[in-house]
Structures are given as C-alpha cells and as structure tokens.
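Duplicate of #3305? Posting structure anyway:
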C-alpha cells in the first residue's frame, strides 16, 4: 500500500505542476508529501512491490496532459518496483472508461488511479472494484465514490486566476466592456465545472 501511495503522491505532484499551480506553499507541501511517501516505500523489502499492478485510467489517451501524466507514472513505477498499466479510452467516453475499470479489475490491479469523466457515470464500476479489494485514488477529477486519496488542483481558484488574468489583458488592450464567451470541455467533469465557476 505504501508503494501505491508513493506513486499516487508522485502523480499528484506532477498533476499540480502541469496544471500551473504557482503557489510556493502548495508546491512545498506536495513535494514534501511525495518525498516522504517515496522514502517510506524505500524502507519496504524489494519483494513487496513484485507483481503489483496499478491501473492508470484517465479521461482519454491522447490529450497531452494525460500523456505527460502517464510518462510520470511510468517513471515513478520504475523507481518503486511496481507496474502501471495505462488503460485510458481513446476519447472521452463514459462507456469506454467503465470498460477500462472493469478490465483493470480483471487484470488483477491492486489500485486504480482515475480521472473520472464525470462524478456519476463510473461510480458503480468503481464501487464494484472496491468490493473486490481494489484501492481507488483520484487524480484531477473525482467520482462520487470515496477514495483513498484525491490529488487535484484547486480548480475553482485556478479558474478565478484565469478570469483575473483575462480581465488584466483586456484592460491593458483598452477593452472595458463587452461579453466573454466560455466554451467548456465537458459540462459533467468536476474539474471543468469548478474552473468555469471560478472563471465566472
């Protein structure tokens, strides 16, 4: 379990850095947590991680954010002596993400690190996974199922920062009135909902 938590902490730190977290306090806290978890994992015997498979299920497999997250996961897995299987669907599709969860359980995953497309769609599949003894960890976007941990940017604060920066840019360009259009990626995804709310 320590190795799975160490991997999750490493992914959480990577996710924070990739989404533009610029708070020194958050960076130090995340770095400290990742370092502590990694050190704890090193104290285990090498055999403890042998044969341990962790599934990484993101919203899709082509977005650069998820590609980079997987690269970080593979690096951390190599350092910790576990296997991470990237099982993301090709596109953001609830049915495919549910299938990935089911496939992870069938493949013997000890844990699933998941960025849920929406809070409800994969909840039943995740509950079934938990009933099989699989640990659930969220990265970026949770579902409505309790998990061991959630690693995410404060998306509402990030959206607020984006809105403030846009207002500064418009003001600098002499634009003082008008409308701003918002095109969201997915109206059901928690991270997207929070970013839009903060932006507004």
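Output from current build:
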């Amino acid at each position: 379990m320590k190795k799975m938590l160490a991997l999750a902490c490493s992914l959480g730190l990577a996710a924070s850095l990739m989404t533009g977290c610029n708070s020194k306090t958050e960076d130090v806290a995340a770095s400290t947590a990742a370092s502590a978890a990694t050190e704890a994992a090193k104290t285990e015997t090498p055999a403890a991680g042998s044969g341990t498979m962790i599934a990484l299920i993101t919203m899709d497999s082509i977005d650069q954010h998820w590609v980079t997250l997987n690269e970080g996961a593979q690096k951390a897995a190599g350092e910790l002596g576990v296997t991470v299987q990237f099982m993301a669907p090709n596109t953001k599709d609830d049915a495919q993400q549910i299938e990935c969860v089911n496939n992870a359980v069938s493949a013997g995953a000890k844990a699933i690190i998941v960025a849920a497309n929406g809070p409800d769609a994969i909840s039943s599949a995740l509950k079934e996974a938990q009933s099989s003894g699989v640990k659930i960890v969220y990265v970026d976007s949770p579902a409505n199922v309790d998990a061991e941990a959630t690693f995410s940017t404060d998306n509402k604060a990030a959206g607020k920062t984006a809105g403030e920066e846009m207002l500064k840019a418009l003001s600098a360009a002499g634009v003082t009135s008008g409308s701003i259009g918002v095109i969201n990626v997915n109206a059901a995804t928690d991270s997207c909902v929070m970013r839009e709310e903060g932006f507004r």
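Confirmed duplicate; merging threads. The chain has a mean pLDDT of 79. DSSP finds seven helices and five strands in the chain.
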